[in-house]
Each structure stands twice: as C-alpha cells, then as structure tokens.
Amino acid sequence: MNYDPALGWDVALGLQLFLAALFLLFVFKLIRTGKRDHRRLHYGSVAILVLGDIGRSPRMMYHAQSFASHRVQTYIVAYKGSKPIPSLLSMSHVEFLYIPEPPRWISKLPRRLFILLAPIKVAYQIWGLLNALVLQIPEPPVHILVQNPPTIPTLAVAWLVARIRGSRVIIDWHNLGYTILALRLGEKSRLVSLAKKFEQVFGRSAYAHLFVTNAMKEHLVKEWDLQGKKIVLHDRPPSYFHQCSPSEIHDLFVRLVPLLTVEGSWFPSYKLPSTTPFTEIVKSPRYYGGDTSLLEPRTSPNLRHERPALLITSTSWTPDEDFSILIEALKRYERAARTHNAKQPAKPLPKVLMCITGQGPLRAKYMAEIQDLIITEKWEWVRCQSLWLEPEDYPRLLGSCDLGISLHSSSSALDLPMKIVDMFGCHLPVCALNFACLGELVTDGQNGLVFEDADGLATHLQTLLSGFPNSEQLDRLRANLGPQVSSPSRRISKGWKTWDQNWDENFKPLVIPELSQQSEEWLEAFVNKRRSATASSPSL
Q1: Which residues form the Glycosyltransferase subfamily 4-like N-terminal domain (predicted)?
Q2: Does the global pTM surpass 0.85?
Q3: pLDDT of 464-520, one tens digit each?
Q4: Half-sphere exposure of 154 (CA within 13 A, CB side)
Q5: How far is CA 313 from the centre of its chain?
Q6: How far apart are CA 76 and CA 136, in angstroms?
Q7: Which of 92, 228, 356, 426 has the most CB atoms less than 10 A away?
Q8: Contact at 8 Å (CB) between 212 and 173?
Q9: Is the Cα torsion angle 148, 150, 151, 156 positive or negative in sign?
C-alpha cells in the first residue's frame, strides 16, 4: 500500500485542531475558576514548576525542602523520573503532582514532520501543566516558582495561571533557554530568535527573579530590563554533603564494588566485606578506663595506601559539555604514567578510576569510545566507570573521592555548574574548565585549578596526583575548603554557607513572612470551622 503524504498532513492537522479545541475549552474553565479563586487565595502554599525530571533538578528540590521546613504547603509540579532526595519524600508539607509525559507515538513520528511534532508536544505539555496548577491544587498558591529553562511553554503557562488564580510568579534563572536551543539549531536560526523573544516577553515582568550568578543578573537587567524584585541566590550544598570518613567510604564500596564493570584484577587485591579496593579493616586495641591490662580487639576501616586515585565528574551527556576533553586528558595521563613510573618509581603516578555519574543521549557513544581505547591501547593506569546512583549515594560518593572534574562550559556563559557546588560541599577540590563567570565559584590555585583544554587538564592531573596518596598540592587545595572530616553544621570556607543558611538569609525575607503569618490565620480559621462542624453534628 502506497503512502499518501496528503493523508499524513490531514491527520496531523486534525490532531492539532482537536488539541487546540481542548485547550480553548480548558482556558474557558480556567477563567470561570479564576473568578472564584481570587476571593479565596491560599497564602499558605507555593507551587514549584519544573518541566523536567524533578529528581534531576536538585536546586528546585532544595527550594521545596526549604519552603516545607517553614510549614508552607508545597506542591511540586514536574515529570516523574529519578527518585527525589529522601528528605523531601518524608516531609508532610510536600505533595508531588506529576504531569504526564507526551505519548510515545509522538517521538516515533518521522523527523520530516518536526514542524507538526513540536506544536503537538507543546500543546500536550500545556494541558498537563494547566491541569496540575489549576485543577489539582485546591487553593491558589501565593507564589509559583518556575525553573527556567525549559522556557517553552513553562513561562507562558505560569504567566497565564498567575493572572487567572491571582498568584505571583518567581522565575529561578538557571540559564537561558534560547542559548541551549542555539547549540542544536545554530545562533542564526529563526526558531532561536523566536525562542529568545518568547523568553524575554514572558520572563520580563515576573514578581521576582532569582539568579544563580551576579553575571546573569547584570546581563538580564541590562539587556531585558527585568521588572520585579531581583535576588542573587548562589547554589550552595545542603548540610548532608560532607567529606566521608574511612568507615563511610568502606560501607559505600562494600555495596558499590559488585556493581563495577572494571575488571577486578586491575584493582589491588581485595576480599569483601573486610577489604575493598580503597579500604581495609584493621584491628586495634581498645582500652577500658585507662587499664591497659584489659584489651579487646577493635575493627575500624582505614584507607589503603595502594588504592587508586578516585576521580569523579557528573554530566548530563549533552553537547554543552565537551566530553572529548576528558577522554584526551585521560589518554595523555596514561602515557605520562607509563613514562614517569618507569623513571621515578619512588614517587609514582597512581592508577586512576574515573567515575562518571549521570544519564543522557551521548553516554553510550562516549563510553564505547573509552572502552575501545582501553582495549586497543592496552591502558594500564586508567579505567572509567559510568554510574547511576540513588540520591542518597551521590553525596557519599563525592565525599569519598580525591578530585572532582567539571567540563561545564555554559551555553550562556552566565550560569555556574551545580556539580562544583556539591563537590565543595564535600570538601572535594576540582579541576574546572574555564568560562566567563567561573571566578564567582572557583578561585584558581585556592579551591581548585582551572584549565582551558585537554593538555591543561592532563597537566593538572599529573601535578595533583604525583606521589598519591601523599600529595602536598592536593592536600593544600582540600585544606582551603575546610577541615579534613567535617560535621554537617560546618561552613566550607569564609563566606560559604549551607543551602539552608543561604536560603534563609537571602530568599526567606521575600516569601516567608507573609506566607507564614497568613498561613497561621488560614490554619486557625480552618481548625475552628472543623470544630464547629463537629460540635454541631449529632453524637454517634
């Protein structure tokens, strides 16, 4: 049977008209609902809007946790995917309103139908967002906190709901959506120009704006003349990010080692659960009341001197991170280690296990390339391991590592990588790819080293790991981040605070006073109403 192109266009056009009709009906219902909502605005709640996997949006999860800790009813509107952080799941003031993913048949349409596919997908997203923000949230939230990007259609939907329900929009500017689109379509694309105009129009007049950097705030205020309150809220790690003790490292790798794909013979010999490639349990005497005659052996894990250096990078495996830089740097490190260790065995370069966390479209391509290099070039000193961790294990792995690497280059050159913030929270020094505003986070030579290309990264690795595990330069960078093993209440360094401290100082004054006061009034009225209803009802 021959394919009739005209029939395909007719079907696609019919679908668009059908979705448009549903959208118009929904807007009509919103307007009718809005007249009622303006009279009963609920000042004790906030909606957090993420057009993405909430488990992969740490900053928005931290926002939700902060609101809920202040007894603000918090609705999270997002896609269901990765598991959120455990502390968020246990909070009574948090409710997840998951929006449905677009149907799979949309992604299976031929690429030549992209001009039809995009509107259908956007219409489906609009429907899901409006359904959650209007019909599933019983009372209008006082604020709608929107993550940007994604920009389309989230900013427009938030703008519409705010006008119908009487809420206020706060945009959390993580990056610029149109610059990410330009990575795929090119800066001169007409679609990129339209996306930029869309972002400017719907992002300009929010009630308030949060920025991850001073550079982003200055740029948007100057170029787009943003209206509303403006607050720079730098990313900071939550308090449970910390440098792990040998006992914590041992417990982690007793669980992780069976999941590693690296051949066991590459590691120093080990036997679970008493030893791992990185730790070993040793016996030491335990004294009672100062009486040395009463001894009992005590077991405690220690770090092994012959362990590999444990490096980590976190990536979304997308084009905005040039992963080829890391591959080339590891190739150069492998060659340098062979030459150096043959000439200077007294101060060798160690084996390196490069752990890469995250998921994304380019993962399979790059991991296959790395494995091919290991086999064809017979690498002896470097191995790579891709990992996808539970939320509670990610900070533990960071706290167990020796060095972090950031390949983030920023499509706008105005945002900062959250991965470095997390690393600093675990007192983990970094090697970071340089870009415009990196200096707001990384001070070269103080809390990390900055590189421009693969050669620079390879040089830093050799410098920092020489003589490992007794590396003076690596120890100096770590010392600048704080004490060797930290407590959850510590500060990372002068001027640094935990997420909670930073949020309470900078963002809470804008949203919590009015929320908490009116929330208490609303709660008291609600309880009194329930008591009156109970008292007036007949006894059973």
Answers
A1: 60-232
A2: no
A3: 999 899 999 999 999 888 643 333 333 344 446 789 989 999 999 999 865 444 555
A4: 24
A5: 13
A6: 11
A7: 426
A8: yes
A9: negative
